[in-house]
Amino acid sequence: MPPQLRAYDSRLNTLDWNSNEVFNKFNGFAHTYNPNFIVDQSKLKLFKDHIKRIWCDGRDDLTNHIMKLFAWYVQRPYEKLGACVVLEGEEGCGNIAFEVLKKHAIGTRYCLETPKMKILTGRFNSARENKILTVLNEAANVKQSSHEDQDELKDCITEPTCMIEKKGIDPYRVKDCHNLFIAFIQFVQCESVKTNASILCLLCESDRLDDKPYFKAMLDEFDNTDSGIHLYHYLMNINLDGFHPQNDASWTKEKSDMQKSAIEKPVQ
Hints:
The protein is α/β, with parallel strands linked by helices. About 40% of the residues lie in helices and about 15% in strands. Pfam families: DUF5906 (PF19263).
């Protein structure tokens, strides 16, 4: 068993999953890990090609980084990344990758998808409890004027604990292990987070946006075959030794443009 998986198993055995100090009350992923499982890479070709070409502009370094982020979700569910990917582009051009990851690797009970940032940062925020991955989807509602929301968004990305509040119940603090993706936002509006080192910005290609057979083929590959268990084991076997999600993130033009804009047009 690889070193990171031994550490993973050891950590799981020491946690009290019934304690409010543990954010992810974990009952297992979509599949059970088998150290002898042989991954058929051909079953992952559509998914990996989509990430490389549509998300990462054909760059191997970015693609490898994204795959390590995905691997983190299943190898280290007890540990927050402290990093966030912003995927900017047309509505619908990247949702399929999240859908595959949610259904066929992590499991739907540990994922949240919402266009409303207040679900995460508002007073009654229990929807984020016990989650490993939250996708803030089509989130054009993050406005430049909402400085408080933007500060709370940064806390969602990096803070190791958070307060959970439910109606009629006293708030309580938990270890926050959930990770955040922001998709299809006009992110140029978010001046106060542009220079945040924890954010990796990608521009999503839109040439497949209306290609329904393309998206159907990818969904069918996972929904109608056993490709999901191959994806899960592929991610579980990625070596994360020495991987630092913030420090190892590759530079992108989108990040450079955002930082330049933030300097030229500071928030008043």
